[in-house]
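Thread amino acids onto this structure.
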């Protein structure tokens, strides 16, 4: 019998899990452990994968002009797509005005807002005080910083040591990818467990969704425009990448991003898809993707600007064009600072709200429907990372399958 492709297996699991969660609520614990184990296994590989892939990626690119060139290109694409996403959100929220006349009677309190960080905290936090503590805490930005620095200085070693260290870290990275490959085989089971649990635990979502329907529609349309029009256009015209083939190549990663609502947890799959199905070299994917999973969150930037404007509209606060521009820039920065974990975007929104002087309690308005929107924005985050990896690889003259 012909083997069903992985993305189909994941899709089938996802579709079956929703009715299971809704109609067999009481039996969800029978399957939710599958999701817990899958997520734990993905999280197990993420931090070593990020560290080893950054070191080996940078060491293979070399420290001189090619690192500068590839680094600059990647960074510019990330910033460019982030700003495009945030601007799309701003445009739609002004056009559809979902907050005007919204009922404020269902505000929920939000836990964890006390730990919100500012732009300054994000920037200083990039430099680790203690790299082992950051590794243990799973903070990806300082790990990436350290990995790049380490990789750069590996290339400065004397010949014998340089070859030894580069081979060592390439080997570490390859071993992590083999473990990843093994874990990914269980993705359909894991996705089934995660989605069944989520479907069972959404309380009264239908009722709140009706009240917040226009707001959800704005986020949804913005994400759809970005994923189905803007990014494909950038891929096709700027990157000479075939968007349809690209979509197909990364579909397992997109479905996993949707199910887990975590870019970090999806990173192992994204790397596998981009290398195996798009044909991007390890050198480029191991540099661009961990960076992307941590800083490039197009869907989150779009979401944050919509939430900020929605809150302003709901409280009847008028924002000038200038304030709206500040909101676009801070939303992009807040998205860069958001960790690739579920609900991270909801917490970093405080940065945008305080930058333009909006009430923090407004977040309570959108909390109830965060999960489905988180699933969608995370898929867009991962799509953008993989698109940039393909575009950068093409621009470096690589012969891709997309
Ligand atoms: N869950 C998102 C991610 O992992 C971050 C967010 O909450 O927007 O990409």
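Threaded sequence (402 positions):
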């Amino acid at each position: 019998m012909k083997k069903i492709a992985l993305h189909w297996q994941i899709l089938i699991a996802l579709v079956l899990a929703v009715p299971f969660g809704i109609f067999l609520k009481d039996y969800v614990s029978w399957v939710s452990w599958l999701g817990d184990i899958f997520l734990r296994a993905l999280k197990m590989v993420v931090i070593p994968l990020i560290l080893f892939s950054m070191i080996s990626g940078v060491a293979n690119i070399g420290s001189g002009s090619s690192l500068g060139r590839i680094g600059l290109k990647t960074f510019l694409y990330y910033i460019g797509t982030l700003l495009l996403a945030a601007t799309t959100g701003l445009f739609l929220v002004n056009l559809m005005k979902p907050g005007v006349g919204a009922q404020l009677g269902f505000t929920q309190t939000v836990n964890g807002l006390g730990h919100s960080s500012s732009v300054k905290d994000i920037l200083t936090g990039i430099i680790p005080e203690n790299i082992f503590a950051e590794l243990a805490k799973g903070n990806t930005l300082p790990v990436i910083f350290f990995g790049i620095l380490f990789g750069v200085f590996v290339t400065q070693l004397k010949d014998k040591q340089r070859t030894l260290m580069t081979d060592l870290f390439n080997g570490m990275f390859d071993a992590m990818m083999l473990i990843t490959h093994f874990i990914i085989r269980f993705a359909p089971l894991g996705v089934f467990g995660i989605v069944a649990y989520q479907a069972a635990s959404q309380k009264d979502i239908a009722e709140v969704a009706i009240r917040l329907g226009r707001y959800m529609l704005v986020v949804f349309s913005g994400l759809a425009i970005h994923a189905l029009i803007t990014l494909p256009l950038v891929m096709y015209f700027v990157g000479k990448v075939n968007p349809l083939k690209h979509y197909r190549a990364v579909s397992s990663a997109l479905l996993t991003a949707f199910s887990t609502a975590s870019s970090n947890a999806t990173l192992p799959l994204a790397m596998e898809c981009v290398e195996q199905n798009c044909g991007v070299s390890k050198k480029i994917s191991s540099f661009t993707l961990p960076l992307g999973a941590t800083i490039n969150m197009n869907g989150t930037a779009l979401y944050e600007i919509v939430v900020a404007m929605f809150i302003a509209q709901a409280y009847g606060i008028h924002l000038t064009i200038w304030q709206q521009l500040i909101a676009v820039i801070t939303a992009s920065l807040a998205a860069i600072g958001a960790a690739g974990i579920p609900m991270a975007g909801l917490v970093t929104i405080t940065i945008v709200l305080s930058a333009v002087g909006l009430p923090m309690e407004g977040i309570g308005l959108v909390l109830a429907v965060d999960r489905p929107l988180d699933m969608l924005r995370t898929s867009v985050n991962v799509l953008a990372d993989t698109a940039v990896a393909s575009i950068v690889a093409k621009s470096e003259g690589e012969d891709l399958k997309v």
